[in-house]
Input
Amino acid sequence: MAKTFYVTTPIYYVNAEPHIGHAYTTINADFLARWKRLDGYDTFFLTGTDEHGEKIAQAAARAGMEPQQFVDEVAAKFKKAWEILHISYDDFIRTTEERHKKVVRQYLQEIYDRGDIYYGEYEGLYCVGCERFLTEKELVDGKCPDHGVEPELRREGNYFFKMEKYRAWLRDHILKNPGFIRPERYRNEVLSILSEPIGDLSISRPKSRVSWGIELPWDPEHVTYVWFDALLNYVSALGYPDGERYRRYWPAAQHMIGKDILKTHAVFWPTMLKAGDVEIYKHLNVGGHLLADGRKMSKSLGNVINPFEWSAKYGPDAVRYYLLKETPYGLDGVVSEAGLVERYNADLANDLGNLLQRVRTMVIKYRGGVLRKREPGEGEAGVVAAASGLADRVRGLIDELKFNQALEEVLQFVRSLNRYVNERAPWKIKDEEDLDRVLYTVVDGLRTAAVLLEPAMPVKMAELRRALGLGELSVADVSGWGGLPDGHEIPAEAPILFPKIETKNKQQAGREEEEEERTPTIQYEDFAKLDLRVALVKSVEKHPNADRLLVIRLELDGEERTVVGGLAAHYQPQELVGKRVVLLANLKPRKLRGVVSHGMLLAAEGADGTLALLTPDREVEAGSKIS
Ligand code: MSP
Output
């Protein structure tokens, strides 16, 4: 029987139209789903929309619409968006569907009957943006760190789920299963939440205040709390409790989420499952956020990127490739249109597209389109070695969620094919067999690359295959050199795969850079431009790709920052945690070996080159301004 794989995206709130954050999470999940299918897994990919709760009811009211009509319209926009981006979901669940509501009622009743739900009064700080009560500890300067607003103090009679009862069990499960929550920084964050009481979870809202939700089966005066309702989509869509899909796929479940909804997925959801005596999911994969111009995207800042505009201009596969390649999964990433164009031109138009063009032209010109398989010789050793085990290396990286590195691995291979063509210079080869050998080797290599890049660029890679006369292939078809049959023929006509995108001419760009680089004498106003802040070090890790660097996560002023610094020779990561340091906060974000650094820490350099970080000499709050 085929191995199974089940992957989900968060179900998106329909109070906002699809934006790049939704697209990013969904593209990551789609990449994984497509890869697994191609790698022989029986795969199920679920996405959908989260349509109940106060936030949605408010949005519908603002739009002057009935909630149902409103959610129908926005859900349709999500479906359309995923069609544009070639998202290959197997099912799209909406929480207003009867199949879902039925499971929520059934599950609540089950837990209620087991004695894990009780009625009580609760007073707490509620954030409508998060749709949950926040603890004092989660607030930054009295505000919700994700939405920047003060939560409301609310007191109401609610039903509670005995979540605290399962804390010890959950902590133990996470400790025993290191890969349960990944990447590791998020696992540590959850362990820290679980090191103190988590309390019980309010799972209902009085209808007098929120009516847009699923009624509790035993008390029609209350509706289900939106997160309790939403999380169950992951099983309701599979036909829990006895559907065939549920039996088949649930044991292989992996959730892909953004870091903003870690607590609900890593704490609420597993304890809910445990209470219902349901096996918990296999992995929680947590992605970072995308930032525009180094800042969080928000409507009020006016820096929201529209991926559908990019897609209309450069094609959906270019957007998919760029988002997957640009940011290491799990970390925040900075994206921009200029960045997309640069990546597209370098990797796709130059490295991949040109190679295809060149080799097609030669095969048609020298061989009338027909390839002859000739055993590789010494000249092929490099390419043969690079092709051997390539699919395994890519698989290994994808299994570790290193999607950007997996794509880079394939691109490195494509670059090695380019070097091979240049070295072997087929246009100079006199020996007929040798010419066959070179042409075959390049086309065979491109065939491998097309398969391994297909999860990122499904439509373009199908076009690439067609340009080489190839049909559908799977990962199993591309192990090492020589998968292409002897006598294979490529078609005479094929469109250009990745036409180069024209940018400003080089001279003009160069002049602009020089302007920027000149350092004028400093005036006070210049100094005042520096946003220097005290920041608190939350966690530190070694940089995945550079020995010299540390990746430092900071907190300041309700915001989280990642800074990459050349401190590895001077500090052990653990030494820095809890320190208050000085951050140049408004430095333009920069990518250092694949990780975006958003600011710079100030340090003094001793005569022997040792670095000493600056710290305030008495305790001041993180975020305090330095002048
Ligand atoms: N409805 C809940 C999820 C319920 S799942 C049972 C929700 N929806 S949401 O519409 O707010 O979407 C949340 C997800 O969108 C985030 O977890 C994240 O995956 C993605 N993103 C939203 N903004 C983002 C960025 N700026 N960057 C990357 N992803 C972010 O929360």
Observations:
- The radius of gyration is 27 Å.
